[in-house]
Amino acid sequence: MSAPLKAPMARLDRLLANLGYGSRREVADLVRKGQVVLDGKVLKDAGARTPVTADLPQRMTVAGQPLDPPAPLTILMHKPLGVVCSHREAGRSVYELLPHRWRAREPGLSTIGRLDKETSGLLLITDDGAFLHRVISPRSHVPKVYRATLERPLSGGEGAVFAAGDLMLEGETEPLAPAALEPLGPRQARLTITEGRYHQVRRMFAAVGNHVGALHRERIGGLSLPANLAPGDWRILSAEEQAALFKS
Ligand code: URA
Q: Which of 145, 197, 201, 219 to mutate to test the pocket of ligand 1 (most atoms within 8 A of CB)?
């Protein structure tokens, strides 16, 4: 039997500051005012070291509210149309759909890959760098499944072109890895890719003379977008769901 993992320790003021509750001085003030409670006891010492366990939100309150989830944190979101995935791009971003305080978290949250402003569907957001790299690494071969609605009817030849593994996108020097096309109707198809190149799906259909009107990501690896998660909604991903992602 393997020994249980030891929880990392953190000073209380650092833990709260890293969760975005304020500067170290501001959170020390919260502690002084008796606003931080663990297991029903008011904490007095902002410098005391605390084990950072995943169950802290059930055990600690700050100003009467459950503590925000500590790192590592991964979120599954139904990205709506019209929002961007980058902090740097103009326009409303997916981060604005999360609690405001989370923008000050350390480590910060990043999307795992990006969806275009006009693409909807399954988006993962994490502060766990190792998990992020494992999902996006080409070596992991994690399939990403998209439903594309096309401007023109499928010709019938696209599946073979995408499966060949030699399609070169404009401006690139490496051919695309094989991708699987499943026609769903005259102008609709499901496309499974294992890479994440810039605007990849739109550019693949452009390469075969078509144009993507609407694009929606249905699945990443073994993780599907839950049917009951409305556009703009999100929830925390469990460790089991994270593991399921690599079993597709
Ligand atoms: N391919 C695209 O073209 N856009 C996306 O948002 C994702 C994949």
A: 201
Asked if the model's pLDDT at residue 3 lies above 90, the reply is no
Q: Give per-residue pLDDT as tens, 199-231.
A: 999 999 999 999 999 999 999 999 999 999 999
pTM above 0.85, yes or no: yes
Cβ pair 72, 127 in contact under 8 A? yes
d(CA 148, CA 202): 9
Q: Output the six-digit token pair for 99.
A: 């609690």
Torsion angle in degrees (nearest 10) through CA of 13, 19, 22, 24: 20
> How confident is the model over 145-165, as pLDDT tens digits?
999 999 999 999 999 999 999
Q: Which residue is it, tokens 């605007």? A: 199
Tokens 């996108």 correspond to what residue? 169
What is the Cα Rg of the chain in Å?
22
CA distances from 206 to 181, 187, 216 (A): 15, 14, 17
Set out the domains of the chain in order of their start, with CATH numbers: 9-66 (3.10.290.10), 74-137+228-244 (3.30.70.580), 143-220 (3.30.70.1560)
Helix (H), strand (E) at residue 77: strand 74-79
Among the listed residues 89, 118, 99, 101, the one whose alpha carbon sits nearest the alpha carbon of residue 27: 101
* C-beta of residue 123 within 8 angstroms of C-beta of residue 111: yes
Residue 181 Cα to ligand 1 midpoint, Å, equals 15
Residue 22: left (phi > 0), alpha (psi -120 to 50), or beta? left
Split at pLDDT 50, 70, 90, the class of 7 is confident
Q: 45 catalytic, yes or no?
A: no
